[in-house]
Records
---
Amino acid sequence: MKVTSGKAGIHGWGGYVPRYRLPTKEIARVWGWPDHQYKGLNVSHKSVDGPDEDSTTMGFEAAYNALLRAKIDPSLIGAVFFGSESKVYAVKPSATLIAEMIGATPETMASDLEFACRAGSEGLRASLALVSSGMVKYALAVGSDTAQAEPGDVLEFTASSGAAAFIVGPAEGAAAIVEYSYTYVTDTPDFWRRAEKPYPRHGEGFTGEPAYFAHIMGAVKGLFKKTGLKPEDFDYAIFHQPNGKFPVRVAQRLGFTYEQVERGLVTPMIGNTYNASALLGLVRVLDVAKPGQRILLAPFGSGAGSDAYSIIVTDEIVEKQKLAPALDDYINRKLEVDYATYTRFRRILTMLARG
Amino acid sequence: MVLARWWRTRIPRYRLIGAQCKSCGRAHYPPRKACPYCGSTELEQVMLPRRGILESYTVVQSIPGDTRFQAPIIVGLVRLENGVRLVAELTDVQPEELKLGLEVEATMRRIREDGDNGTIMYGLKFRPILGKS
């Protein structure tokens, strides 16, 4: 299953979080939820895309930040992957939009990927494979979502908006080299959205143990078995973050400490950005990581599957950290909105006249 | 016809590409076939700086149709770092946060869409510079 062994790495990384924040206590006020029914999620606010934002605009800004750090001619990017479950078109690629916006067109592959919250990570794996094989010099992997959740559903307390992007290139010159990656997938009915339906459904009994925990633990243990690495070999561990408690719990089960997980935890502050969830954790870690440190990254997507990556930081990271906004610049730029404004921004309010 | 016109002008809109006159040296946006200052047709495309300051603005509250959910729409006159002036929408800013001299930067946004069954048109708007708002 090993597809990379240090031949490729991350040359540029970038994140994006919209300005607006909806407090979870405001959602509880509107729907009449008592504290004990949502506070255990450990999410104080969720980021809300503005009325002129979507998964494409957010993905562009994350990609632009990654490009600033990579310092490469965008025409050298030979593949653009866009992972999302909130594509703006059912048919018309967002990957070509972003490729055109950043200047990677026309000599590039471009495609949108779907695997619930894991599509962006699949794009990262495909990028690593293409670069490692020599087919392309650089590839761009984007994970971006304006996450959908049915109003009043428990998912609404966490489903948020954000994007992460990585420019993958040869190991030489990379800020972080991907040593190994490993993927673990099965057919699991934990979460789905049927065609032309606006909101996803979740199979309650499948969400935790058979889906999230089984797949992330399967991927991480698979990586450990292939490589001989152990939890104590890592400085940071980043897991998919559907809420603020699952990543801490899976870390404990795998033998990681809270200190290894803390820096990469973004969901308690901004909610679950679906395809950007774990990837934004990686962005936040790369913003401060030091040469020689090792990072474990384990995204997860319903349906279900998880990837585990072992990433080594190089000397190149120091200069690149200053070349684009840090994720915390976006997280700290916040304006609280109420539920009514959220329904307008998210177009849950449907009475508006349409031309 | 809006779709074709938008498509033809997408690259300057996506990448903030203007034109610089080889005769008088001045740049402008959006790029035209002749220099608006000296009339020369000897122009080259240039990537413009993405930061500038707000020189004037107006706030539009009454918005028709598909774009109403974006209300209010704020239109600004922005002077880029190289002196080029352009008119663009402002975003991620509340009317009460506006002031002349506000430092702004370009960001990609939805400009308009052709109903809920047509295309979405993207372009650059300006927002207060990250970390300074």
---
Amino acid sequence: MTNLDWRAATRHRLFWPVAVLVALLLINVPFTPGFFAIHVRAGHLYGSLVNILIFSAPIVLVALGMTLVIATGGIDLSVGAVLAIAGAASCLYISKETDQNSLSGVLIAVAIGLGAGLVCGAWNGWLVAGRGVQPIVATLILMVAGRGVAQLITSGQIITINSNTPFGVIGGYWLGFPFSVLLIAVMVTLAVVLTRRTALGLLIESVGGNAEASRLVGIRARRIKLMAYIFCGLCAALAGLINSSNLSAADSNNAGLWIELDAILAVVIGGTSLLGGRFYLGGTVIGALIIETLQNTIFTIGVPTQTNLVFKAVMVIFVFLLQSPAFRAKVFRRRARPSAPAVADAAPPATLTTSEVGR
Amino acid sequence: MSALLRDKRLPVLVTAILFIAMFAGGASRYQNQNFLSVQVIANLFIDNGYLLVAAIGATFVILTGGIDLSVGSIVGFTTMLTAWLVQQQHWPVLVVIPLVLAVGCLGGYLMGYVIHYFEIQPFIVTLAGLFLFRGLCLVISKESISIDDRTISKLALYQVQLPGGTFLSLGAVTSLVFLAAAAFVLHYTTFGRRVYAIGGNEQSALLMGVPVARTKVAVYTISGFCSALAGLLFTLYIQSGDPLHAVGLELDAIAAVVIGGTLLTGGAGYVVGTMLGVLVIGLIKTIISYEGTLSSWWIKVLTGALLLAFILLQRVIGSRGRAAPLPAR
């Protein structure tokens, strides 16, 4: 009986991501005494776990938006550039203010940053849904041009701001809690409720599965796609605000550099297929935490930081090889036979839907 | 009119016209600064020879409907490896050159193998390649290594004189020879036809008896080779190795391919178009440097705008006589 439970547990789609995360966290224990300890110091929550959560906030947010875009069968390469644009726009506004600590000024700056993200997302969505351009290509445009735009906003300089109370809070602490962690909790809850407690998630998956068929059954596929890209733009902008608030500056060159790759990786580790049609928000969050924990682990166990990228590359290859049915069939050929029914379980629904659409 | 719109050579023609128009505009604007000379065009090849070679590799991959994001990293790694071997290990240049080219080929071959045999999207596999090679750069050294080897300096300063007082660097000549070779392979060999066939429809190509597996792996190997060669040309051009050399070069290469009229869905396009795309991007850089007051960030913005224009043009052309585009792979 327990044997059966164990098997069912290992087949759960979140089992391997969670196992990897736990393993990574455990690796830290011998190197950092009191790794799991969380204590309150000067009214703030402190601890290694809290740090990992705080630093993972931008990746979690960007990956959250990316999940929905990928679920519609698309991809958004421009998130790093959008992050930089949003940070640049809001920091520019604050730096022009006479009183950088005024709440109204900061709120306007936040609105400007989010507005920039909205416009960028809408632009991507228009190209993909309105003009029918391939998502990789459509968002490549903003990826190339966006960083240039961010540089033009900041005139090629790093804008530093001096707004500790209202703007600094976004990346700092609020009532003793790390604000960015609260923010991702709110955003994740919002996304989960909107997609899993309403029909929206189902609509997104059906658009990702087959956009044309969804349109024929009366789903407004274009509008769903547009909304996904706008949401992704907003998430990236929010990540940009957190990033700028952390640094008290807007660095258009390095803000969010390669975050699109981390985000895509997080989404795929979480079990969402890059082909679209299926998405797991919980998996994405765990994927993002894995990436941040990995970086943290590399740092704490004393691996030279320059091998960070090699580590990450090896992990990307490893994760994708394990997810590839062709690889599993080749390598685990003998062991695959007993679990063959599991593969068969997954296959029929897919073929069924396509044949239904065919009729 | 519709016959013109259906012609596959139209995007290349548009790019050529754009290049001529931009050149004419530059010539009339900078009359006093000697813009209108053959040397300005020769300089385009001298300054962008490495991009041309990298973009030719990207053309092969994109023609099969794939994508290679590891270009910039392999270029960076090649500069680093060359600089390290020549400068710090004192290996002879004649040994180092074939070695780094072989490393590039091996990297491309491995990526192609994983893409084809394990059926993982090219986007992801080459992304891992991007991380891996950039990481390996940093493993060699975090600092940049400048090269003062005599053979390398001699090669870098070597000038090929052309009639009329203009000259080309060795890198530019190499890139042009390579361009001619690539055009020959794509248009006059069986291998070239197979590349187009796979890009048109992989399933049909397979049913027609095209050795899809071998061709696809070969295409990524070629791309790896091109990246390594581009890295060597870049090393000659800049005479140093740096872990941050050529970050984002893959985007320039892809942009050049798209501006040159190659369809990102695969199956249609010309390397000559890619050359024109590289020239257009190079000309943007030249004009901005002539302008003097404009921020160099306009290069990115303008490249993005051109990319947009050409992608929308592809949609206009693509929507006639072609079925709905294949989903991105």
